[in-house]
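for the recovery benchmark. C-alpha cells below, seq after
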C-alpha cells in the first residue's frame, strides 16, 4: 500500500493523476447521460473554504454533447488562463450539485 504524497487536494477525483482530455470527455458524457446539467466555474484560488467560485455564463441547460461543454471550458480558459476551472453538474430533481472536478489548473498553482 502506498501513501499519497502530501499536496493540496481539490474536487472529486483529485486523488487521481490529472485527467486527460479523453477522460474529461468521458466524465462529461456520464454527466449528460445521467440527465444532469453541466456548468463551468472558475476562481483564482481553489480553496472553497475561503473563496467562492464564479459561474462562467449560465449552466449549459441545452448541452447535448461533451464538445459543447468543452468548447465553453476552452473559452473560459482563454479568458481566465490564471484561474482554476472546474465542471460542476446539477441534478434538477434533487436540486443540488452532484459532481464537480477540476479541468484546468494554472501553471503557477502550488501543490
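predicted aa per position
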Amino acid at each position: 500500500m502506498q501513501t499519497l504524497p502530501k499536496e493540496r487536494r481539490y474536487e472529486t477525483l483529485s486523488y487521481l493523476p490529472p485527467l486527460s482530455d479523453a477522460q474529461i470527455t468521458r466524465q462529461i458524457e456520464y454527466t449528460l447521460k445521467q440527465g444532469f446539467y453541466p456548468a463551468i466555474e472558475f476562481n483564482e484560488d481553489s480553496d472553497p473554504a475561503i473563496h467562492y467560485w464564479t459561474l462562467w455564463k449560465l449552466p449549459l441547460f441545452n448541452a447535448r454533447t461533451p464538445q459543447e461543454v468543452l468548447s465553453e471550458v476552452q473559452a473560459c480558459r482563454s479568458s481566465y488562463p490564471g484561474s482554476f476551472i472546474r465542471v460542476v453538474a446539477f441534478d434538477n430533481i434533487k436540486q443540488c450539485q452532484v459532481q464537480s472536478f477540476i479541468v484546468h489548473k494554472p501553471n503557477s498553482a502550488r501543490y
